[in-house]
Amino acid sequence: MPSTLIAGPAHGPAAGPRPASADDPALTGNFAADRDTATALLRTLTGRITELPPRPERTVRQQDAADTLHRRARTLRRRFLARHAEHVYTELTDGHTAHPRLDRLAELAAARYPGLVPGRDLLAADARLPQRDKEGWEIDLGIFFHAVLDSPRAGSHLLCSMLRPTPEALAALPEYRRTGRADLKLATVTRRDGIAHLELYNDAYLNAEDDAAVAALETGTDLVLLDDASRVGVLRGSAMSHPAYRGRRVFSAGINLTHLYHGEISLLGFFLRREMGYIAKFARGLCLDGEAAGGERWWPQADKPWVGAVDSFAIGGGMQILPTLDRIVAADDSWFSLPAMEEGLVPGVANLRLTALTGSRLARRIVLWGHRLRAADPDAALLVDETAPADAMDAAVERAAQHLDNPAVAANRRMITLGEEPLDLFRRYMAAYALEQSHRLYSPDLIANLERTWISRRARSGGGRG
User: Fold this and answer.
1) 123-148 pLDDT, tens per residue?
2) Are 52 and 58 a contacting pair, CB within 8 Å?
3) CA 78, CA 143: separation in Å to the nearest integer?
4) CA-CA distance, 306 to 304, in Å (whole number)?
């Protein structure tokens, strides 16, 4: 059975930081003094938590003790970062001259400010456990990244750092430029007549996404944006071998719930990287000029129009992507849904983008009530630009891509994005998202939903991880 969870509703992000108690140290506003005071106590509190038995083996009293220690530590982290997040980030980035990505920034913070964020050893130990048995150290990462992103200067710099090309993409770029093809294991990129086709291929899970799929899609997105011969990108799901969809393309089944149940979906490598990495790059392009990184002064140096080709269905994360793309062509028998709330999660940036795209009432029906849209529904016209019979999708996608292969498109899409979603609005949303989603990952209702889903799947399949 699931263990008692660390983050109950009373201690979630909506409750805000508690007032300082007699046990909490006073923070003076002096950075050096507050750093020494906070890290000393945070190391102590962390040590006392790790001295307890593993979560599944704890008594009720031991779990209550762990909850109390976590609450004290998290209150102190939020108090310290509310005063000093900008100073911390400036130090970790050498005065904003370095551009560490999420995971590297967390490692630097753990090394320089022990206890402020969990170290690699604590995160690695949690990563080996099912979601229900984890200690929940990622909540502390959520607190840290909420504070960084909430700072206009630090948050904008971090967003631009995440818009830089990945090392994997830079390594693969020469071969892609030469051949027009890249095999990224869970995704492929193929250039044909200036149109770059980025296809997700996670056949075992109906093109559901996990940490590895997010990494492959970001590398593929970078290749399209960096390659001068690729003038338009097309995002599509590959054909499946699953009996129910054999030979048919599937856009995306959303988050891989099997991997989430087994604790293999991470806050940084999936939830935050996905939104600040490849999906943000669809909307904004790449940041190639380190000197210009940060704030609204930054302007894309490598951005291109994108066509989304939706076959079969776009569930959850698949639907979340669509508002960032410039033309959506959907098979006339396809459908769309956002079941994240039913699962216990926040559906990425969909709460922001869908409201702007479909209006508040329809967005609430989709997000809060699980309303499913079919491509032929009148309301789907707010999300889908064109429908086509399944056997005519290739031609429809090609026409859309050719239309967007126009020199004036890039400037116009940049101005649309500036009006729809200024970088500062995105930054503030991501600050709240980092905190909310980190708590959601360890909430009792999410764990219970995963347990029910897993038991149901085992009953249907006769066992196994399928």
Assistant:
1) 999 999 999 999 999 999 999 999 99
2) yes
3) 7
4) 7
Residue 88 belongs to some domain of the structure: yes
Identity of residue 208:
A
pLDDT digits (tens, 9 = 90+) for 338-363: 998 889 999 999 999 999 999 999 99
Is the residue at 450 inside a domain? no
- What is the full DSSP assignment across 70-87? HHHHHHHHHHHHHHHHHH
Q: Alpha helix locations (H) across 370-422?
A: 393-404, 409-420
Residue 71 resides in a domain: yes
Decide which of 374, 404, 434 is a domain's last residue: 404
Per the structure, the count of domains in the chain is 2
* Crossing angle (nearest 10°) for helices 211-226 and 167-179: 50
Q: Supply the DSSP string of 189-212, one letter for each residue.
A: EEEETTEEEEEE--GGGTT-B-HH
Say yes or no: 121 and 212 in one domain. Answer: no
157 lies in which domain range? 9-162
- 116 shares a domain with 250: no
465 has pLDDT over 50: no
The three-class DSSP label of residue 182 is strand
CB–CB of 187/223 below 8 Å? no
Q: How would you list the strands of the sheet with 195-200, edge to edge? A: 181-183, 187-192, 195-200, 232-237, 306-310, 327-331, 386-388
Residue 332 has pLDDT above 80, yes or no: yes
Q: Are residue 102 and residue 225 in the same domain, yes or no?
A: no
| Residue 372 forms part of a structural domain | yes
Beta strands 335-337 and 373-374: pairing type? antiparallel
For residues 297, 302, 305, 309, the Cα torsion angle rounded to the nearest 10 degrees is -120
16 and 52 share one domain: yes
pTM, full prediction: 0.92
Asked whether the beta carbons of 319 and 375 are under 8 A apart, the reply is no
Mean per-residue pLDDT for 217-231? 98
